[in-house]
Amino acid sequence: MLKLLRPAMTRILTPLGRALVRRGIGPNAVTAVGTLGTVVSALVFFPLGLLAAGVVVITVFVLFDLLDGVVARLGGKGGSTWGAFLDSTLDRVADAAIFAGLILYFISRDDVLMAAVAMFCLVAGAVVSYAKARAEGLGLTCDVGLAERPERLVVALVATFLAGLGVPYVLPAGMWLLAAASAVTVVQRVVHVHRQTRER
User: What are the pLDDT digits (tens) for 80-117?
Assistant: First the structure.
């Protein structure tokens, strides 16, 4: 579903992308600004308990993940190898900051169990991404799984936003759901790669 929404969001962001290109701003700068904004917002808003406000600001910066591709295309250069590497690497940094902010939020409320669950989500998400990167580095495919990065972000941010609005139990439920989905995704990717290696 999220992949289907990507073209629509790209069309919406195209006018902003044109404006950035006219000012000589490149896609790598957009990527860096988006990551920096996400990191600062997550580590400032979430530990202070400003969950809804933090999600709104983070969502704006998360859109930079689409905007950098728009800027690259409109600039006539397309995507570069360095740009792809930078984008993927900084995505991991942004994801880690979001969950680190949530961990600090739970710790500030002496909720050790949920802090541990959020930590598991952070680690499992990193393993999900690493499994795909390592498989592709070996010439295999690994584009499978229940909870890829966009789905993980949506679940985490929506649950956090609703919790910030005062909806009870939604954040713990979202974290447990995300932990389970991430664990399943790791298993799915390991099994998928194992099957490919057996066929060779």
Answer: 788 888 888 999 999 999 999 999 999 999 999 999 99
91 is a catalytic site residue: yes
Sign, Cα dihedral of 148, 151, 157, 162: negative
> Is residue 167 annotated as involved in ligand binding?
no
Q: Which two tokens stand for residue 42?
A: 């997550």
End-to-end CA distance of the chain: 33
For the whole model, what pTM was predicted? 0.89
Query: Binding site annotation covers 124?
Result: no
Catalytic pick from 91, 95, 110, 143? 91
Residue with tokens 């393993």: 127
Dist. CA 3–CA 23, nearest whole Å: 29
